[in-house]
Design a protein that fits this description.
Length: 335
Amino acid sequence: MEPRRMADTLRYVLMGTGPFAVPSFEAIRQQMDSTGDQIARVFVRPLPPVKSRGGPPPQPVREWAESHDLPVDAPASINDPETIASLTALNADLLVVCDYGQILKPDALQSARLGGINLHGSLLPAYRGAAPVQRALLSGDRETGVSVIHMTPRLDGGPIVASRTTPIRDDETSGELEVRLSEIGVDATLEAIGMLRTIQSLDSHGPLGEPQDPAKVSKAPRLSKAEAQIDWSATGREIDCLVRGMQPWPVAFTHTVVNENKPPLRVAIRGVRTETYAADASNIGRVMEHEGLAIGCGDGQVVIERLQPAGKKEMSGLDFKRGHRLTAGQQLIAP
């Protein structure tokens, strides 16, 4: 193996699987002509077993790498001794990790001269974990952002090297916000790389970045389908945040009673508008007097603009109301 290089040019190993990583990885690739940097290899998660006719799920980073003829590897575990040996043999200066899906242990991080950086979709230490974008929306936050950390074995716990902040738009879904944050993350990633470029040795440089405040840590566990069920006693804003936060997956839902002789119908709720007034608890879950499809909630009513009944196409709330001849006062939401 060649000795570690101490030059201004960098040799990268990129690690990612999902779409959040692609804009930053592409920015690194595009600047290689001007910097002299190299991408030694791209690591992605292995493809899961195919369980449907639709084939394996997309892997945007794999597709991006293959489209640019970059070498791709997909080990079952990045921390296996054989994988660590392969990583070390690449003689990389820096690991750039984003949306990868595996936690790197110390031996993996030490395989590169400068260790690794990770682009995360929140303003750390808030929302450490797998679903930071969704959790920010579900919590009703008004702003969020991205953080680039110098990685440690603790999940999302390393010092912050660069960050960017952005307001959350009132009509933004998790999917839309995630795309926007991935683009905002490009500048933060390149800023972090620029800082690391001049470092000859981590041992001689000392701590990097700003340590995270442990008192401000919050978790962002992966979403579950059960969390997507709407509680109509919640406030209109809470319901709106749930509907937007659960898109594109698993999608907020409720059960409606449109025929007393049939079981409740599961309906996916894809778009709502809130209207607040002096609420009456007896109206929760009932159809309200409104030109559209309005349902009573904890602090007023929620107008359902788009929905999708099980087994049917997406439609407007008004079309659903007309099709089922719903009237004011009707108990629509199943208890």
